Amino acid sequence: MEVAAYVVAPGSLLAGLLYYMGRSYTNAYYAFFGIPVGDLQLSSQSYVSASPAAVFLPLWFLLCCGLFVALVQGPVLSFLARPQARRLRCRLRLVLAGAGGVVVLLGFAVFIDPAWLNSAMSRISSPRIRAVLPSLVVATGTALSFFAFQLYRVDGSRAIRRVGRAIRGFLLALLAMSLFFGAARFADQAGSTQADRAAADGFRGSGNIHVLIDSSSPIHHDAPGISFYDLGPKYAPFRYQYRGFVLLAKTASHYYLASRVRRGSDNRDLTVVLPDDNTIRVELLSVADGQSMEMR
User: Fold this and answer.
1) Burial bucket for residue 5 (CB in 10 Å: 0-12, 13-18, 19+)
2) pLDDT tens digits, one per residue of 108-160
3) CA distance 122 to 135
4) In this structure, are residues 74 and 54 in contact, taking their beta carbons and an 8 Å threshold?
5) Are 151 and 89 in contact (CB under 8 A)?
6) How would you classify the pairing of strands 254-259 and 240-250?
């Protein structure tokens, strides 16, 4: 049972993290189009399957940083633990602890988002970097402070080592919280960025579903780039056909549609909501059919 607990507990934690990141990514993606995710009734598996797009880059970055620290920390500590490096060790402890504290406070200032930092943050063009920058700053300051208190283990008294152990535990918890917060913000920003790219690209990716809308009555909408055809009484009751829509989501009662053409120069995309009833018929197109209709 004890061995099973060691296996199940990390697995449950990992599953929970994947679910949370996937949910943040999915919420941000559909929120870009104004679609309430609560209406979609997505399963837990859907959120977990969306998590790789949200966690791959942060996980890759953390693994690289962890590998670097693992390779460097041992030789550096061995060098500083030498008796002749005692003066350097004492100075380095003070410098790293002070610098780490200042950087942590600066990171929390970025979290608070004061007005004097807005102009500096606005110069960063990448929204993903802006989203994770506060967490990276706090994590960097925490790592510096942690290394400083690691040095107290070399020649500190028993009481100092006991206090240092408690402080290192606190710093590890702070590091984990800042990294989790940064990954969550990255997942949220990644969802919005992916939605913006899909709309800007005209939903040409293979994961997008192009549809034909057949209606028994004219549909009034403001979506650009939609072709309308009156097929005549021979095709009644669904004589009115609309081409150029992409299916964003489907619930038990509604279709959420977007045009392949972006609306206006402000890049604000319009979502058309149609009821799923006997007045509407939706035909799904293959990728090739959707691309051929795009060229017409």
Assistant:
1) exposed
2) 766 666 666 666 666 777 777 777 777 788 888 888 888 888 877 766 667 77
3) 17
4) no
5) yes
6) antiparallel
